[in-house]
Amino acid sequence: MDENRAANPPAETAAHGAPRICTINNDPFSIAAGLTATPGCGQNGPAYLCDTYSPVPVTDTLSYGFAIMRDKKSCCKCFELTWRSGTPAAGKKMQVQVINIGGDTTTNGASDIIIYTPGGGVGPVYDGCRQQYGKSWRQAKKKQRGS
Predict the structure, then answer these.
(1) 62-69 and 114-115: which strand pairing?
(2) Is the full-model pTM beyond 0.70?
(3) 5, 26, 118, 140, 141 from 136: Cα distances, Å
(4) Which of 49, 100, 133, 139 has the smallest C-beta neighbourhood within 10 Å, fewest atoms?
(5) Residues 15-30: pLDDT tens digits?
């Protein structure tokens, strides 16, 4: 992973703002309401990540998206990630902007970058996709993963 150097000052001195939060139907909350809305993932609240945070392919070898990290100093910074293994991802790159901090985002003491996926991914604890997009989405992902 290589830090992508930008012309802007470091995040800890210049960054501010909040990511947009949506309802289960992808209608945006106001920024103020989104800051206090209870998450739909695991807490049965009305707030979900808007689908505008979906990773976006730019070329066959590059995409961009958004991420979460544990380190506050990383918030609002951009990083370029390179997949080292896995077909067909190996060698491809993704540029992400960290827009949130928190959670257990460490592996063996190192800070991980978690790529935002609207709906919360396919994990057993924070399974927002099933709630937001329905049971058929979950079944399709299980089949894709072979589980």
Answers:
(1) antiparallel
(2) no
(3) 41, 18, 16, 6, 9
(4) 139
(5) 566 778 899 888 999 9
pLDDT of residue 104: 63
Distance CA 137, CA 41 (A): 15
User: Cβ(98)–Cβ(76) under 8 Å?
Assistant: yes
Residue 119 to residue 49: CA distance in whole angstroms = 6
Report the Cα 14 to chain-centroid distance in Å: 22
3-state DSSP: the chain helix, strand, coil percent, rounded to 5?
Answer: 20, 25, 50
pLDDT reading at 137 higher than 70: no
Rounded CA separation 55/49 (Å): 12
Neighbours of 119 (CB within 10 A): 23
Cα–Cα dist 85/81, whole Å: 12
Helix (H, G, I), strand (E, B) or coil at 132: helix
Distance CA 34, CA 58 (A): 29
